[in-house]
Amino acid sequence: MANLTKGDIVFSRLEIEDRVAALARTISQDYRGHNPVLIGTLKGSFVFLADLVRHLDLAVKVDFARLSSYRGKISSGKISFLYKPRIYLRDQDVLVVEDIVDSGLTARSLIQFLEHEQPASLRLCALIDKPWYRERAVEIDYLGFTAPDKFLVGYGLDYNEEYRHLPDIYALPEKY
Ligand code: 5GP
Ligand code: MG
């Protein structure tokens, strides 16, 4: 396990807190009078989703989706569903809450699946955009940060299941 230092911090807990609160204000305004269903992508978005819902001035429902493509730091390119949302989505306002959009394959697959459920509306909120190696066009309706071309950990994001608990977001040093 790498010994991460303050110098490796890319987004501090204070910056994250401010950004999440601002996103929640925008989302609360846009969905006023609606009760959206939030679909968090496991496992990476669990901290972001937990913070986001507590800042929203809306009554929401929450479910999850789990898609798998990553092995360590490398995307396998193949996406499979490990868990599909069970909540009824037809005619609902569905908001996907993603941790990171990188190649765009995960978000695209999930959005395609959700479109089939015929929601009333479907939008994407992502904590982090990494647009450097995009393979599928993805429209992010609510974005926290654009990240440098680094592998990030902390605030729910892992490297081989380590580091998810850290309150700040770090860039993993290159040798890992
Ligand atoms: P995509 O399918 O867009 O290439 O990958 C999206 C998923 O890959 C994200 O939801 C996240 O779980 C994982 N991922 C992409 N970049 C990073 C990163 O820098 N750090 C971590 N921990 N996961 C990442
Ligand atoms: Mg993810």
Write a compact overview of the structure shown.
This protein is an alpha/beta fold. It has helices spanning 13-30, 46-55, 105-116, and strands spanning 9-11, 37-42, 61-71, 74-83, 93-101, 121-129, 142-146, 152-153, 169-171. The protein is globular, with a radius of gyration of 16 Å.
Instruction: Give the C-alpha Rg.
Output: 16 Å
Task: Please tell me what the overall shape is.
Answer: globular
Number of strands: 9
Give the H and E element order.
Answer: EHEHEEEHEEEE
| Structural class designation | alpha/beta
How is the main sheet built? 6 strands, mixed
Small-molecule components bound? guanosine-5'-monophosphate, magnesium ion
Low-pLDDT runs: none
Put simply, the count of helices is 3
Average pLDDT reading: 94
Biggest β-sheet: strands ordered side by side in the sheet: 4-3-2-5-6-7
Distance between the termini: 9 Å
What fraction, in percent, of the residue positions are helical? Answer: 10-25%
Strand content: 25-35%
Textual characterization of the structure:
The chain has 176 residues and is α/β, with parallel strands linked by helices. 23% of the residues lie in helices and 33% in strands. It is built from three helices and nine strands; from the N terminus they run E-H-E-H-E-E-E-H-E-E-E-E. A six-stranded mixed beta sheet has the order 4-3-2-5-6-7, sandwiched between helices. Strands 1-9-8 form a three-stranded antiparallel beta sheet, covered by helices on one side. Strand 3 and strand 4 form a beta hairpin. The model has no long low-confidence stretch (mean pLDDT 94). The chain binds guanosine-5'-monophosphate and magnesium ion.
